[in-house]
Amino acid sequence: MNVGVLGGGTMGLGIAQVSAQNGHKTILVDINKEVLDKSKTKLEKIMARLVEKGKILQDESIAIQSNIVYSTNMQDFKDCGIVIEAIVEDFNIKSEVFSKLESIVSKDCILASNTSSLSIASIGSSLKISNRIIGIHFFNPVPLMALVEIIPSIQTSDLILKNVKSLIDGWGKVAVVCKDTPGFIVNRVARPFYGEAIRIYEEGIADFATIDWAMTELGGFRMGPFTLMDYIGNDVNYTVTETVFSAFYFDPRYKPSFTQKRYKEAGFFGRKSGKGFFDYNDETLNVPPNKNRELGEQIFERILVMLINEAIDALFLNIASKEAIDLAMTKGVNYPKGLLMWADELGLDNVLSKLESMFNEYGEDRYRPSPLLKRMVKSGTKFFR
Ligand code: NAI
């Protein structure tokens, strides 16, 4: 089957590489010829490195690269069995592009979007045959990140979902199916990793370095929340938080912070601007963490129970299965354990009592325990086993 990828930027190139590696003739279309030239050169370098490291043979590298056709013309999608869109995150542009796309491809062609924040139902509304729309949300960098969230919308047919799932499974990815709701699984469940860390800082409990130390050294996370926000970019991360917050009709649990907003406003984006929560131009300016174990444990536990509560609530609202939620966080953002499995290990009663004590202390809705957690504690059940 020929695969079309629309948008030849960061995500589009990654998706095209994976498709080509799996033997598909892949048509990569971007409106900007320069982007395509740059992407082609980038892929050449990636392939050369893989050959050098002995991960693939020279012949395979040549075959993969020759599987990709670079084009600025969407008409080249006409023989594709699926087109995956990865263009700029703008509803009006996506909508216009999808209706144009539909006039080019066959009536059986699957139309997918890699959107991170728009609803698949809204994108599908621009199609005449709307039961072929589906969300296929990859993670960056696409060839390295195993997770793919598959999002059928209310229009999507069961057959399209089945075919897409088997295609993505066949690419060796870990495909999880989730509901067409804001943030899908990962970008929803991960919110407290940032939000609660900032809140702890705002309350003056600890500084950035100490919170990061607690999460990496005691919690086993690969990166602390502030290092991660600096890596993602405070401009990007703040915008995602704001988008999720408004998409959830301003549920206080997803409230963005003034702290990150000020960093964004000041242009302290993080790594890319040389300064964010930490200084990257002069590392000596960064204060070392306070390695007080008791303090560290408190920080880690507070963020972890907030993450667990979010994961449980996603299950409560049937966003995805328990297995999918745990896989999403371990394979999409490299969490050391699945959050529901972690909840079992900690004891659901411990998780609930920690949340209840914060809820009582602060009187804020963000600390409200999920009804499913309460129900499970009452009945003495666990997520697994
Ligand atoms: P990007 O800016 O690197 O690439 C977008 C490309 O689309 C650009 O090369 C641009 O020239 C092209 N483009 C814009 N309008 C077009 C049109 N009408 N026809 C053809 N090409 C057009 O953006 P990136 O980061 O690759 O994101 C693309 C999509 O993937 C967005 O929807 C984003 O939300 C989503 N996404 C991004 C992730 C990330 O980490 N960057 C992760 C998961 C999803």
Question: How are the secondary structure elements laid out?
Answer:
Layout: E1 3-6, H1 10-21, E2 26-29, H2 33-52, H3 58-66, E3 68-71, E4 82-85, H4 91-104, E5 110-113, H5 120-124, E6 133-138, E7 147-152, H6 158-170, E8 174-177, H7 186-189, H8 191-202, H9 208-218, H10 225-232, H11 234-247, H12 258-265, H13 293-316, H14 322-332, H15 339-346, H16 348-362, H17 371-379
Parallel strand pairs: 1-2, 1-4, 2-3, 4-5, 5-6, 7-8
Antiparallel strand pairs: 6-7
Helix pairs in contact: 8-13, 9-13, 10-11, 13-15, 13-16, 15-16
The structure holds 1,4-dihydronicotinamide adenine dinucleotide.
Question: What does this protein structure show overall?
Answer:
This protein has 2 domains: 3-177, NAD(P)-binding Rossmann-like Domain (Rossmann fold); 185-385, N-(1-d-carboxylethyl)-l-norvaline Dehydrogenase, domain 2 (Orthogonal Bundle). Helix 10 crosses helix 11 and helix 13 (293-316) packs across helix 16. Helix 5 links the parallel strand 5 and strand 6. The protein has 17 helices and 8 strands. Strands 3-2-1-4-5-6-7-8 form an 8-stranded mixed β-sheet, with helices on both faces. Helix content is 51%, strand content 9%. The protein has 385 residues and is α/β, with parallel strands linked by helices. Bound molecules: 1,4-dihydronicotinamide adenine dinucleotide. Residues 6-12, 29-32, 35, 86-89, 93, 97, 114-116, 137-138, 140 line the site of 1,4-dihydronicotinamide adenine dinucleotide (NAI).
